[in-house]
Write a structure and sequence with these properties.
The chain contains three helices and twelve strands. It folds into two domains: 2-98, Elongation Factor Tu (Ef-tu), domain 3; 110-172, SH3 type barrels. By secondary structure, the chain is mainly β.
Amino acid sequence: MAGAEAARTQLRVGRLVKAHGLKGAFKLELYTDDPDGRFVPGAQFTLQVPESSPWHGKTATVREFRWMNSHPVVFLEGIDDRTAAESLVRAILWIDQDGDDLTEDDAWYDHQLVGLSVVRDGATVGQVRRVDHLPAQDLLIVAPADGSDREILVPFVAAIVPEVDVAAGRVVVTPPPGLFEDLPDDEEPVGETDGAPGESSSES
């Protein structure tokens, strides 16, 4: 049975957005509904950083977590000044998690999203091929339903992906025009009239 594997996976819980102050603190972008429970002193995270980073393959341990002017701020062991903190900016924090222990409403493992049907206005328009985690935002990489080799990059934000239903095997998208199809190029530009270009049609 597949359940016999009992494999561990990882949950992405935050991103170190920028250095804060002079004592090695970081402002956090949170991907967890329970930051006070996740970022307790001693909590250890796997770091997602470029291979060229001296932090590649290392872990980070929380020294302190606090809220400053409604912004989450974290201090990590071994990061004691701003210069050291700057070397870790944009790192993504992952935590080991049992495969069946995902309880947060708006968090999904990548493997849960891969293979889901992408539905727009009730019609299937593609399938999630993978998830890319970029510094600015996450992207769902979608293989279009027309069978072409192109990839559609869908920003994984609530305004464009308002619903993820893993149990039903689908994500619902409300993309802007042109994301899943080419916009027609034979439409009349706004402001053009039957007269010569640039002429006004007002009567004298």
